[in-house]
Amino acid sequence: MSNKVAIIAANGGMFDAYKVFNIATAAAASDKEVAIFFTFEGLNLIHKQGMHALEMPAGKEHFAEGFKKAQVPSIPELVEMATELGVKFIACQMTMDVMGLTKEDFVDNIEVGGAVTFLDFAKDASPTLTF
Amino acid sequence: MNITKTLDAKGLACPMPIVKTKKAMDTIHSNEVLEVMVTDKGALSDIPAWAKSGGHSIIDQKEEDGVIYFYIQKN
Predict the structure, then answer these.
(1) What residue segments make up the domains of chain B, in order of their start?
(2) CB 3.0–4.6 Å: which of A4, A7, A21, B63 could bond A78 by disulfide?
(3) What ipTM does this complex have?
(4) Which InterPro entries does this one have (chain A) (predicted)?
């Protein structure tokens, strides 16, 4: 049985962030080795400012109240939790170059790499998930 | 039953009950028992699945006034 969970985060909305970080923290809390590859809009999820202002899908803004009522943790809290549990964050170098972003634009302790960095981690991971 | 530690995770939503359970479990020794109190209905299946993946045993479980209690013996 594989002890690794590999996740690709390719979208940058608030719902995307919850899907990514809930699975990642749950897996890490179950003693899995977890890596998330943040690419394209997915980089938003670990962007120092961006992660505080993630948007809900158009027309779904009314769910904000539901999030509050269900006492769902905030995304920055989940990011911190994931880091604390040892989840590895890999930011896509190519996307960063295209968008003019540097490592300093992101939360601490990220690794910057290309597709092969992620593929190398994911080669014996199960499951590999894409959000 | 000797309870070594109690975790109050009432009111917390997924994935926090699991994350907090993991952290609390890290602080006790093998064979000791952790009591977990949760209100998240998802935990009803999540906590047993989590325990199974780590080889821990759920030795008792009950529900009172909307609060679910798990008694998990550490592997």
Answers:
(1) 5-73
(2) A21
(3) 0.87
(4) DsrE2-like, DsrEFH-like
| Residue in chain A nearest B51 by alpha carbon | A30
Tokens 């809290």 locate to A77
pTM of the entire predicted model: 0.92
Neighboring chain B residues of A73 at a CB cutoff of 8 Å: 13, 16
Contact B18 A85 (CB under 8 A): no
Distance CA A3, CA B21 (A): 20
**What CATH class does B5-73 carry?**
alpha beta
Judge: A71–B11 Cβ closer than 8 Å, yes or no: yes
Q: Which domain holds residue A10?
A: 4-130
Residues of B with CB below 8 A from A31's CB?
Answer: 22, 53-54
For the cut 90, the answer to whether the pLDDT of residue B1 exceeds it is no
Helix pair A75-84, A14-29: axis angle to 10 deg = 30
For A31-88, the pLDDT digits (tens) are 999 999 999 999 999 999 999 999 999 999 999 899 988 889 999 999 999 999 999 9
Write down the pLDDT at residue B59: 97
